[in-house]
Amino acid sequence: MVLLAGCASTDLPPAPAQAATADYNYIIGAGDSVNIVVWRNPELSGSYPVRPDGKISAPLVEELVAQGKTSVELARDVEKKLSTYVRDPVVTVIVTGFVGPYSEQIRVVGEAARPLFLPYKQKMTLLDVMIAVGGLTDFADGNRAIIQRTSDGNKQYAVRLKDLIKRGDLSANVEMRPGDILIIPQGLF
């Protein structure tokens, strides 16, 4: 009797095709760059990196936490700090380098050609992720891959990477969500 355990399918539910929400707002993370524009005060304007501790430093604004905030929230915080020195400051914050906080990044582990993390982008799909990581290794069991969705309490969903990549089955292409972890197992043969 031959046992084909490597061919058995997973008991996980398939990943939902639509995952993104219309009201998604980008969250600033360590490694991002922000461009702070202070209206009528060009000497206070500039581009600043978000340090590994999640903070930024700018003229008259020292040690301000940026990580975990939207660009609008950060702009209001900068205005509050500057109001001590500038009358009625008007600040705009534009994120120019996108990394995002770890909780928002897409991680790909296992038998991807280049396992890595990616900044989440709205409407990002499984196919977009697989193109970014260079596809599957020769040893991957793509149809047993799973998405662990941290935004759903680490619920796991089955995805069909082999069907998507090797067969071009676009019905296997699903939307990703911030914080998703794509786990690609190795096949037994």
Task: Summarize the structure in words.
With 189 residues, the protein is α+β, with helices and mostly antiparallel strands. The protein has three helices and ten strands; from the N terminus they run ββββαβββαββαβ. The chain has helices at 71-82, 126-133, 161-166, and strands at residues 33-38, 46-49, 55-58, 61-65, 91-97, 106-110, 117-118, 146-149, 155-158, 181-184. The strands form three sheets. It has a five-stranded mixed sheet, with helices on one face. Strands 2-1-5 form a three-stranded antiparallel sheet, with helices on one face. The protein has a two-stranded antiparallel sheet with strand order 3-4. Strand 6 (106-110) and strand 7 (117-118) form a beta hairpin. 30% of the residues are buried. The model is unreliable at 1-8 (pLDDT under 50).
